[in-house]
Amino acid sequence: MNQVLVLVEQLSGQITRASTELLTMARRFGTPIAFIVGDDVSAQVSQYGAAKVFRGVAPEYDLHPVAPWVDALAALVTQLSPEAVLIASSAKGKEIAGRLAIRVGSGVITDAVDISEGFVATQSIFGGSTVVHSKVTEGIPIITLAPNALEPTASPVEPSVEDLVVSFGEITTAARVTGREQATKGGRPDLGEASIVVSGGRGTNGDFAAVEGLADALGAAVGASRAAVDAGWYPYTHQVGQTGKSVSPQLYIACGISGAIQHRAGMQTSKTIVAVNKDPDAPIFEIADFGVVGDLFAVLPQATTAINARKA
Amino acid sequence: MKQAPDSVAQKNLKESDSTLDRASVDAVLNDLDEYAIEAALQFSEAQTSEIPNRITLLSMGPERATEAIRKGFSMGADDAIHVVDSALAGSDALATSLVLATVIADREVDFVLCGTESTDARMAVIPAMLAERLGWPQLTFAGEIEVDATARIVRIKRMTDDGVESMESPMPCVISVVEQINEPRYPSFKNIMAAKKKPVETLSLTDLGIASDQVGSAGSRTTVVDFAVLPPRAAGVKVTDDGTGGDQLVAFLAAKKLV
Ligand SMILES: Cc1cc2nc3c(=O)[nH]c(=O)nc-3n(C[C@H](O)[C@H](O)[C@H](O)COP(=O)(O)OP(=O)(O)OC[C@H]3O[C@@H](n4cnc5c(N)ncnc54)[C@H](O)[C@@H]3O)c2cc1C
Ligand SMILES: Nc1ncnc2c1ncn2[C@@H]1O[C@H](COP(=O)(O)O)[C@@H](O)[C@H]1O
Hints:
The structure holds 2 protein chains of 2 kinds.
Chain A: E1 3-7, E2 10-11, E3 14-15, H1 17-27, E4 31-37, H2 42-47, E5 52-56, H3 60-63, H4 67-80, E6 84-88, H5 91-104, E7 108-116, E8 120-125, E9 130-136, E10 142-145, E11 161-163, E12 176-182, E13 196-200, H6 209-218, E14 221-224, H7 226-230, E15 251-255, H8 261-264, E16 272-277, E17 290-293, H9 296-311
Parallel strand pairs in A: 1-4, 1-6, 4-5, 5-11, 6-10, 7-10, 13-14, 13-15, 15-16, 16-17
Antiparallel strand pairs in A: 2-3, 7-8, 8-9
Chain B: E1 3-5, E2 27-29, H1 31-46, E3 56-60, H2 65-75, E4 79-83, H3 93-105, E5 111-115, H4 126-134, E6 138-148, E7 153-160, E8 163-170, E9 173-177, H5 189-195, E10 200-203, H6 205-208, H7 216-219, E11 222-229, E12 237-240, H8 245-255
Parallel strand pairs in B: 3-4, 4-10, 5-9, 6-9
Antiparallel strand pairs in B: 1-2, 6-7, 7-8
Helix pairs in contact in B: 2-5, 3-4
């Protein structure tokens, strides 16, 4: 049996969309074996074909970011000798992947937008201008998969869960969390995983109501340019771009954003791009499939009304 | 710190070996590493102890990386180590982290400060990999740093995807900083002048005792199968709002079945 080890993440009892994508991807190559931490979400995981679920329950996972996951996955790699290890391309996922690669002597590829036969990973680089196919040449391939790489599909199997006991090293527990402030999420979808993102920039002048209104009509996540984040108008967790999140939704709507290269680096691989900007020469129009030259405070509310009317 | 192609420059891969064509673009100090240098300077300036701090820049990269090192000097760093060797070309993150960790492990270091990611590789994994190789705790994605030099403890605010975590760790440790942490200074005239005289120690793989087949294209555990340059994303339809811009936008979305 070909086994593919998948790191499954959950948010308060719900496995993330990225995790369902990883499990769906893993099935291309064999049977997914999942590693989860915290609540027993094995019933959800097995909906996506994981024949076996290992569950980490130790308090260390909560107190020490990254290193405990590396210890656990390294133990599983030794125990199972899987064909590959798949991890989500989040900041933490990439750190885990990088350290695991050193630990088990493997090559690592991050930010894959697809994986094909022989674990050949497709990456989109230089702001989407170049597509690279690469593969791991030594050890078990460790690959992190970018969000929205594929449409997750269910393939239910009987759940089977086992607690994984790991002895953590001294170094694993040396850096510890002493407090946590959760960013307020509201009811909107997660930015990294959303299929539609509506973003606001300096052009909102600090008033995100029109952006949020359109986002809610579309069931979208809200993003922001760095200018908007630096001005304190929107939390940094919503920043899209080179130093913010990279998003690749079906639809990206940029409102009052000029389209600086650092912003484009985080959204250029979106399937469809729409821009609303009052400057006809704004660079964002160069990559927009549809652009409206106009005032976002007029265009967005009209669009929101029209979308809500269609739904009625 | 790394010398990287100017982040606004057009970048291409070379046909010959599928590595970044570095010759065709201006190379500068990786934008994000300026924040790490600034954090080091601010820490150093806040110290009151008798023992002076040394801020050493460490860079692995081609000959030209000296330009980025000069930039770091002109901000105020004291000295530098430059690992340069023709066998290093094409190194992946595993090889790069091996070289950097070998240099660091050999010295007396209280903590290592990195940027979050390099604007060219964009993997954002080197700091975590350094921690793994050195066997040091990692404090990554720091938006704030507080160093208790007497107790030898570092505290940071870790900026995560869903909030902020307060963390602490004993020294030595590996820290990476996010851009919210500070505003990198402009070099002063005095420091620009002094930069020319600051010492750079140049190390080869032989000096480090690393075999050349452990690094570069030979030692990398990943390989590029092929690559393709996509035609630039063509600009689509652009309409000027005549009072129906919002409706036209929705009509476009409807035609694409996005609403
Ligand atoms: C190292 C580094 C990293 C960076 N990382 C990022 C990053 O991750 N993400 C990011 O976004 N940026 C990043 N930047 C910053 C980037 O270079 C730009 O400064 C930033 O993206 C600009 O934000 P903006 O488009 O909102 O603002 P501006 O460039 O000021 O554009 C505002 C736009 O709004 C339009 N506008 C104004 N009023 C209206 C209105 N009423 N209706 C419609 N349109 C209007 C204007 O015509 C203008 O085009 C980075 C920069 C550096 C140096
Ligand atoms: N060749 C290098 N020399 C020195 N530091 C580096 C090098 N490559 C990466 N780094 C450091 O690691 C950070 C993350 O880089 P990366 O993992 O390549 O995105 C950078 O911001 C630098 O601080």
